[in-house]
Amino acid sequence: PQDKDLTMPDTDPTKPSATTDLKEDDVADEPPVEKSDDDSKTYRELALENGMNYTVTDVPPLGTSMLLGLQHYLTMLGATVLIPLLVCPEMGASGDQTAEVISSIFIDLL
Q1: Each residue's pLDDT tens digit in the chain (110 positions)?
Q2: Which 3 state secondary structure label does DSSP give 46?
């Protein structure tokens, strides 16, 4: 195997770089996708063909949205409450001080 070149790339500001050579027309409106036989397919069609259930702009059904929202809430709540419950007593905080830390976190989330 060949040794990889671990030196820093040339950062001479007088030389053009790949980012400075881009024109406004070169920026794509959609994320890049692999070339397919049928270039007329949209990004959404290609994503669904490749096994994605939803794309970024899709809205799941109400039941699925509520379950995913509950999952997100429980994850956020667990991380928000569990960390102070574990860390504050190790720092010598009392139960009241731990409660103040947790309540201040919830106030900051508003």
Answers
A1: 555 555 555 555 555 554 445 455 555 555 555 555 556 888 888 888 888 888 888 888 999 999 999 999 888 888 888 899 999 999 999 999 999 999 888 887 66
A2: helix
Output DSSP code: residue 23. Answer: -
Whole-prediction pTM value?
Answer: 0.41
**What residue spans of the chain are helical by DSSP H?**
43-49, 62-90, 95-109
29 DSSP 8-state letter: S
Residues 6+ apart with CB under 8 A from 101: 84, 88, 93
Of the candidates 86, 72, 71, the one whose C-alpha atom is nearest the C-alpha of residue 101 is 86
Sign of the alpha-carbon dihedral angle for 39, 43, 47, 49: negative
